[in-house]
């Protein structure tokens, strides 16, 4: 009930690795960060406090949180040469490769702090990443809309600073809506970690070669970009807009999915682990109405989303395959209501997932037993055979 979980030896043989960071029970729909239920953290904590918990293993004292917050606020600025880095990208570039390139480039600016076994260098790299990724993301947005970059304002909190750098202008004062800050802070908490998902496993695998933190996180960003993983939140919006633009016939779309026409899927549904309702989706759905009412979301898309969910939860095809809404199903509607373009939704996923990636990379570096290392395979190819000269083929 309390303390450390004991592992069933049989389970250990099938697991990719062991980890003490996040616990998921896919059948019961349970998610805990360092033992704390996601429902309690969503209600009572903040994104920075959850980041501290994931990375250092305990909830911070008031002094520890103040120190952590202060350290991060001192590293939000990008090196001016890295700022120029954005000039090289086309304006219509997708922000995810921009993000992974800029994060990888950080290792060229901080060559004196890349040693994964020097605690001080790991610490400063952790703080730099947490502080600079929001700035990099905001600059990727500003580049895409041809607007000037705003320097960070270190008197603001992390999420507020990100929103100001994204939607603010040098020409006038920009007051960030506190409802927007709270909503985004909550979404970042819900995305902060999720055990050995595709992108986190990528971070651990790349890090297992003793690659530095920036290189490993850059690889994780690339893995998250895939539409079956982090790209799903954008794909959900495109799916909802497609249903709306073709007349809003939800049943017709559901039939296409069931008939597997053109490989179409119900984006935002299903999960490798959750064979029950994703607890994050339940929290997001609960707040989606509130947030969208306050921010003025597109009700027609929310209505289509709710109709899709009703169809899926009552249709044997989806129920038999245990396909329930996952974390991505409602988030896109909220991000859109906040003013983000669809292709930026996965960037927001990456901002939320960053502390989890860092926590896993540090755990693996500190404990070789938790390394994924070098996975083996089951060979299913040709048995041995002799070479044939080209004249005999
Ligand atoms: C994330 O791992 C994590 O923790 C990830 C994540 C995190 O926080 O890091 O939670 C974030 O990636 C959430 C998932 C976001 N992706 C999507 O919403 C894309 C749509 N979903 C799927 O592509 C799919 O559900 C997966 C990949 C997420 C999970 O697939 P599963 O559970 O392994 O199921 P499967 O691929 O083995 O399919 C089983 C059956 C198949 O049908 P049959 O061959 O049995 O007839 O279910 C069908 C699939 O065709 N199916 C779907 C479906 N997902 C699976 N049919 C329609 N719509 C879907 N979404």
Automatic annotation (TrEMBL):
What reaction is this protein's catalytic activity? Answer: oxaloacetate + acetyl-CoA + H2O = citrate + CoA + H(+)
Name the keywords, alphabetized. Answer: Acyltransferase, Transferase, Tricarboxylic acid cycle
List the source organism.
Answer: Actinokineospora xionganensis
Q: Which family does it belong to?
A: Belongs to the citrate synthase family.
Q: Matching Pfam families, A to Z?
A: Citrate_synt
The protein's GO terms of the molecular function aspect are:
citrate synthase activity
Which InterPro entries is this protein grouped with? Citrate_synth-like_lrg_a-sub, Citrate_synth-like_sm_a-sub, Citrate_synthase, Citrate_synthase_AS, Citrate_synthase_bac-typ, Citrate_synthase_sf, Citrate_synthase_typ-I
Q: Which SUPFAM superfamilies match?
A: Citrate synthase
Q: Identify the pathway.
A: Carbohydrate metabolism; tricarboxylic acid cycle; isocitrate from oxaloacetate: step 1/2
Entry protein name: Citrate synthase
